[in-house]
Design a protein that fits this description.
The complex is a heterodimer of chains A (104) and B (404).
Chain A: E1 2-7, E2 13-18, H1 24-30, E3 50-53, H2 55-58, H3 66-72, E4 83-85, E5 95-98
Chain B: E1 5-9, H1 13-24, E2 30-35, H2 63-69, E3 72-75, E4 78-82, E5 87-90, E6 95-97, E7 100-103, E8 107-109, E9 122-124, H3 128-137, E10 143-147, H4 151-162, E11 166-171, H5 183-195, E12 199-202, E13 206-211, E14 217-222, E15 227-229, E16 232-235, E17 239-241, H6 245-249, E18 257-258, E19 270-272, E20 277-280, E21 287-288, H7 293-308, E22 319-324, E23 327-333, E24 340-346, E25 351-358, E26 361-368, H8 371-382, H9 389-393
Parallel strand pairs in B: 1-2, 1-7, 2-3, 7-19, 9-16, 10-11, 10-16, 11-12, 18-20
Antiparallel strand pairs in B: 4-5, 5-6, 8-17, 13-14, 14-15, 20-21, 22-23, 23-26, 24-25, 25-26
Helix pairs in contact in B: 1-7
The chains are: A alpha+beta (104), B alpha/beta (404).
The complex binds flavin-adenine dinucleotide and FE2/S2 (inorganic) cluster (FES).
Flavin-adenine dinucleotide (FAD) is lined by residues 9-15, 34-37, 44-45, 47-48, 77-78, 104-107, 125-126, 152, 242, 245, 274-276, 291-294, 296, 320-322 of chain B.
């Protein structure tokens, strides 16, 4: 299990246990964390699982591929340096995720 | 309505989402979800995709979710509804009183009215059980004939080919996916299937299936006399909506429960959503019934909002996706009745979008491996866009900068 903390735009935070091998998106959806819609169920085609990762964690994560990059250009909330698609991120111990204000 | 009793019939994508959204919108009365399939509500799209490669978790939510939200999952089938008494009766005889009833009964796979359609190893694909039986038979060297060149048929063909099966698709119309995509997109995808070794026979009708002494399918006979050897046949020839509950309850149907703009049937206490509902859409010129996750989810959200707040017309933009041969096809809007198309990108490179216009108005966009086009076009179609075919055809056109 990996502990992942999801912080909402209003400042509230939830920490949940996510099985290793699961995605950060799955971890949110299965635990009822708000704000990660994941309309396409992890297919990397909808960009409604957009999240912000703090800088310290970005180095540990897999790089952004072309498809993810294209989707990050059209997210509903602004793209920032820490922007990622949660369905493309493996659960890792201690990750802190900031959930954007809107996904649509 | 904040309290009271709501019964949701059918624990598929739409039924699950209706329950979840009702709670999110503050409904705190009794909420029951009647599930005929003996599983937690699950997603079907992977059944013709990744699930054919190996086990993956399909459940939409873990069991704890339903406990946590106070959603009573009832295993069983609703056998009848009595709109006067406002009760739904299960096949066990148990009767469930309701103040609001949501029909989310989905659809079942159609079979073919030709001789031999009941032979063993002739499969349809709707449930996790169907997918499991089919998966066991898909091995390298297996001769697979897919009947129907729609999304599900072509997805299965793509997977079967990848697993080393000798794969043939038979489609009665001159184009694959003809009801839902333009010839440009259809032709491009068919070419990709063919280049990977799948035979795609267009404009050919299946006349019969022939079996061996053990009742297993052996051959598929076509209308031109051709016989295809087959170890496995997969029928992807469409669905029939589950509307039998309407008959005794006197609810109007027409290939689906008929509902108004707010997704309500002729009985003000009964709604219908998802694959089983035919509704008036702002995005089509006639009543439509859609079979997609988007439609199930958005209609569920909508009904939850209507029940907990003010009834409003349902206007969500329809969208859909399909994975074939490593390509991601996405469709926004409804192209039916379009009279002009503009192609952007290069089909030969497997990255393009087709913009469809009806009387000069953008009505749909089909994208292959261009997900950003899909997302922006959905936003455009949600409003009123002034985008013209000439704008799109311009070499410097950039959808990201299009006015909304
Ligand atoms: C193989 C396959 C692949 C697909 N791929 C895609 C895709 O890539 N993208 C996409 O957008 N869509 C796809 N779809 C379509 C999508 O899955 C459906 O549109 C969606 O499941 C519809 O949800 P629903 O809740 O309306 O119906 P369903 O999911 O069919 O659920 C209805 C449920 O109600 C139950 N039920 C029926 N009658 C009763 C009764 N009287 N009492 C109790 N329960 C009852 C049924 O058993 C069923 O469990 C696919 C479908 C299939 C089969
Ligand atoms: S869930 Fe759709 S892109 Fe991540």
């Amino acid at each position: 299990m990996a502990h992942i903390t999801y912080k909402q735009a209003d400042g509230t935070a939830t920490t949940v246990d996510v099985p290793v091998g699961c995605s950060v998106m799955r971890g949110a959806v299965d635990n009822g964390v708000d704000g990660i819609l994941a309309e396409c169920g992890g297919g990397a085609i909808c960009a409604t699982c957009h999240v912000y990762i703090d800088e310290a964690s970005t180095a540990k994560l897999p790089p952004i591929d072309d498809l993810e990059d294209e989707l990050l250009q059209v997210t509903a909330s602004p793209r920032l340096p820490g922007s990622r698609l949660a369905c493309q991120l493996p659960a890792m111990e201690g990750l802190v995720i900031l959930v954007p204000e809107k996904q649509l | 309505m904040a309290g009271g009793r709501i019964v949701v019939v059918g624990g598929g994508q739409a039924g699950f989402q209706a329950c979840s959204s009702l709670r999110d919108n503050g409904f705190d009365g009794d909420l029951s979800l009647v599930c005929e399939e003996r599983t937690l509500p699950y997603e079907r799209p992977p059944l013709s995709k990744d699930y054919l490669r190996g086990d993956i978790d399909l459940a939409l939510r873990p069991e704890s979710f339903y406990d946590g939200k106070g959603i009573d999952l009832i295993a069983g089938r609703v056998a009848g509804i009595d709109p006067r008494a406002r009760t739904a009766t299960l096949d066990s005889g148990r009767s469930l009183p309701y103040d609001r009833l949501i029909l989310a009964t989905g659809a079942r796979a159609r079979t073919l009215p030709v001789p031999g359609a009941r032979l063993s190893n002739v499969f349809t694909l709707r449930t996790v059980g169907d997918a499991e039986s089919l998966r066991k038979r898909l091995e390298a060297g297996t001769r697979v004939v897919v009947v129907g060149g729609g999304f599900i048929g072509l997805e299965v063909a793509s997977l079967a080919q990848e697993l080393g099966c000798d794969t043939t698709v038979v489609e009665v119309l001159p184009h694959a996916m003809a009801r839902v995509v333009t010839p440009q997109t259809s032709d491009t995808l068919v070419e990709v299937h063919r280049s990977r070794g799948t035979r795609v026979l267009l404009g050919r009708r299946v006349a019969a299936f022939d079996g061996d002494h053990a009742g297993r399918v052996r051959q598929v006979a076509l209308d031109n006399g051709t016989r295809l050897e087959a170890d496995v046949v997969v029928l992807g020839v469409g669905v029939v909506p589950n509307v039998e509950l309407a008959y005794k309850a006197n609810l109007p149907t027409s290939d689906g429960f008929l509902v108004d703009q707010t997704l309500r049937t002729s009985d003000p206490a009964i709604y219908a959503i998802g694959d089983c509902a035919r509704f008036p859409s702002r995005h089509a010129s006639s009543l439509i019934r859609l079979e997609s996750v988007q439609n199930a989810v958005d209609q569920a959200h909508h009904v939850a909002r209507c029940i907990t707040g003010q009834p409003e017309p349902y206007t969500a933009v329809p969208w859909f996706w399909s994975d074939q041969c490593g390509l991601k096809l996405q469709i926004s809007g409804i192209s039916l009745g379009h009279d002009q198309t503009v192609l952007k990108g290069d089909p030969a490179e497997g990255r393009f979008s087709v913009f469809c216009f009806r009387s000069g108005e953008l009505v749909a966009v089909e994208s292959v491996n261009r997900p950003a086009d899909h997302i922006i076009s959905r936003r455009l179609l949600a409003g009123t866009t002034e985008l013209t075919p000439d704008d799109v055809a311009h070499p410097d056109f950039d959808l990201k900068k299009a006015p909304r």
